[in-house]
Amino acid sequence: MLKSIDEQMTAMLSHHDKVLMVRLDVHVHDRLADNDIMTDFIDRMRRWACGKYKKNKRLGFVWARELSSDKGLHYHLVLLLNGDVVKSHYYVLEKAQQIAAHHAHRGYRSVPHFGDNPMHMMIDRDVQGDYERAFEWASYLAKTRTKDNKHRSDRANNYQTSRIKPRLNEHGDIFTSGDDYKKAIAAKANRAKQVTPKTTATDKPVHMMTDDERQLPLFA
Questions:
Q1: CA 218, CA 3: separation in Å to the nearest integer?
Q2: Could you give the CA distance from residue 93 to residue 110 in angstroms, rounded to a whole number?
Q3: φ and ψ at 157, to 5 degrees?
Q4: What pLDDT shows up at residue 215?
Q5: What is the C-alpha separation between 170 and 186, in angstroms, rounded?
Q6: Burial of 123 (0-12, 13-18, 19+ CB in 10 A)
Q7: pLDDT value, residue 119
Q8: What CA dihedral angle connects 34, 60, 120 and 111, to 10 degrees?
Q9: What is the C-alpha to C-alpha distance for residues 38 and 72, in angstroms, rounded to an integer?
Q10: For residue 73, pLDDT beyond 50
Q11: What secondary structure does DSSP assign to 33-99, as a single string?
Q12: What one-character DSSP code corresponds to residue 15?
């Protein structure tokens, strides 16, 4: 799980020089055997985030399923958003709470507020130490002592992450601080050209060939 967290944080920072990380807890009704409720939650959050913030084209996430005697079944969730356009965690938390309240019939109980110590962090790609602090903070999700192995079905995971692919620089490595954005875009365009198959005369349907092209196989 730590590897998956690292991959998604790195991928988001390859696309955005700032990434807003928001930690939420999603409390649900006990004895849910699958994780369909989190699929629903992530889908609603993605549509909201990409709709409200037009330049926020992707939503990174990591969640872990947990069962405890005092809190029941709940999910620890970290959301990753474009920090250049989503600058505050406030509306993210507000929307998460609205989802839980308006769709309680689906199994949601609540999304608690963390009080005076809201769990969020703005990660700056160019600030040394930001990534390390954020990764240490997010790695809390990887703990194993209270994972739900009681009600969970064999087909349901105890954790899941988004699958955002990183942006690559002109050398084919993951885009990081100091890389040239224009060169990365140009390199991406060149890679696309290289993998585009060329159509030869013999690849065309017969009805699309010229008279000369129809004769080519005869003299090959």
A1: 56
A2: 11
A3: -85, 160
A4: 61
A5: 8
A6: buried
A7: 80
A8: -30
A9: 16
A10: yes
A11: -S-HHHHHHHHHHHHHHHHHSTT----EEEEEEEEETTTEEEEEEEEEEETTT---SHHHHHHHHHH
A12: H
Residue 73 near residue 31, CB atoms below 8 Å: yes
**Interval 91-101 mean pLDDT:** 94
Alpha-carbon gap, residue 7 to 10, rounded angstroms: 5
User: pTM for the full model?
Assistant: 0.76
- Distance (Å, whole) CA 53 – CA 59: 11
| pLDDT tens profile 113-134 | 765 555 899 999 999 999 999 9
Q: Give the range with max mean pLDDT: 101-115, 144-158, 186-200.
A: 101-115
More confident residue, 30 or 175: 175
